Protein 1
Amino acid sequence: MDYSWNWSVLFSDTGIGTETYLSWIITGLGWLFAISITAWVIAMVIGTTLGIMRTLPNKWARGIATTYVTIFRNVPLLVQLFLWYYVLPTLMPISMQDWWYQSLSPATSAYISAAIGLGLFTAARLCEQVRTGIESLPKGQANAAYAMGFSLPQVYKIVLLPQAFRMILPPLSSELTNCFKNASIASLVGAAELITQIKTASEYTQNTFEFLTYATILYLIINLLLIFGMNTLEKKLRIPGMLTGGKS
């Protein structure tokens, strides 16, 4: 294969001002973190709310949460992202359309669409994790709390949720890394995240192998750091006798 390797291509000038390809990669990382963190916050808030609704005695609450999970888990993320970016803005009131199309930059509108789409998709998966965590707790704990005079919100806030989240930390680690990896799909709606910058730099330089290698290393480092952080948190918050089989 007649290919000219150039591993120092990151430090080459792009020909646009004084920018180097490294600065493009750093910009892409910034957007990647912005999309992923915003989506994760959305997913945690909505997923926790829906997870609680799935365990309430009210059938309407359970039905609404179940419908949400059924829809968002069975429609591909890419389709949801296209709906948020291409379709839903056209359904907004005229004043909001003017703001969306004229006031926001393309990068900002792509970021908002990607963060919302990814957040709502991840929320459906988190909902099931939260529901599983709550349902895995002995029913006697909730009954004891009711017997002590706790209200329903107090039972969830003080008794059930703190333990449920400690129980589901391992699957939450997986969902968090998936959230960061799935953010790469935002490149398909023009978000200037890491993959978009990698593709652009590859087209400018034809050094595709080098840039894909750098992207692989960066994703690997990000996800290993996330897993390390979540494992550390899991060990710190471990419930003795429940997560270790009584070993600690």
Note: The first helix runs from residue 21 to 53.
Protein 2
Amino acid sequence: MPGAGDPHGRPLMMTTSRQPSLGIIVVGASLAGLRASEALRAQGYRGQLTLVGDEPYAPYDRPPLSKALLAGTSAPEALSFPLDPDLGITLRLGVPAVRLDLDARTIELADSTRLPFAGLVIATGAAARPWPDRSPRGVHTLRGRDDALALRSELGTEARLLVVVGGFIGSEVAATARELGAHVTLVEAESQPLRRAMGEEAGRFLAEIHRAAGVDLKTGTSVSSFAGLDQLTGATLSDGTDLDATVAVVALGAVPNTDWLADSGLLLDRGVVCDTYCRALLSDGSPAPAVVAAGDVARWPHPWAGDSAVSLGHWSNAIEQAEAAAATLLAKEGELSPYLPVPSFWSDQYGVRFRSVGIPALGDEAEVVESDSIARRLEVVYYRQGNMVGVLTANRISRIAGHQRRLAAELAAGIE
């Protein structure tokens, strides 16, 4: 095999190549990490390729964690992505990376192993944001396979589940728990679930779906504390209400996994800050040689966001950005292509399929085209300074493709 510096004649995108045969390391056995590895091979890289993951499992699909795996209709093994042995990827699983030394061009693992690299893909994803105080047993977060199985073991018809915050993860857990017969209380500090990300009408639509399914939805309040010395027995809300609960899910969002990069010299701001080519930036704003990032851990500029950077925890973004990052890592200078996607995601709750394209959260105005919670149909178009930036639909899948084409055309026109 040729080395990392000679993948079918194309050099790694780097300013120096002191160790050209060391290979590429992908840190993060996530969807983005796997797709980056596959993309490197597909794009002609034949050198040494190592995939490092903190969990003991091969890369697996995460959307079913809050649905099929939690419901018990899918086995954990069924979530694993197929991994072609002919790709020649060396797996280092169950040992997280704890430090990046850019000067020495090495990754240090938790078992003190040091792995040298010529090229690096950072795809360490994000962790669930934890409850900020001590909590008794029975209080869960949901981010990985073990989290879902632990939560699953406590759900059933006798369970009284408390869901803290009604974002997409919290809402999906609530929906699955209702299917299992659990009593569900969902507490949301905003006036409607998802109001901050999707606006008032989408939030009202989702609230009606929750209540129709039998969820006790409490809005405009929040959980102040959990009760129970050892095992969860309930919670107290900010409005003084006391609730009984046997199990709780804290769904406060995600925190990018960047602790291991703290003294690396990379620019960190709610993730690994990248340029539009997926190149990780140094603290002085220049690109780090031969280091790219992809997936939940990356923040990068998008034309719709103006001067701000965006970070998207979407399945489709993990794939597309991983492919773009791999292309950047292998590109010659002057052949870089910017990563300018039209993002998309989906969510299934109570038999309703939500689909989104663009970035609705960037909108400053929402046009409600259709909203019928009885028929379970929703279509909202989002604009930012008069320009379309996103769409959310429920059970209107056929309309998504047209919106996506329009967003792609407007994005391209805005770049020209």
Note: The CA atoms of residues 170 and 251 lie 5 Å apart.
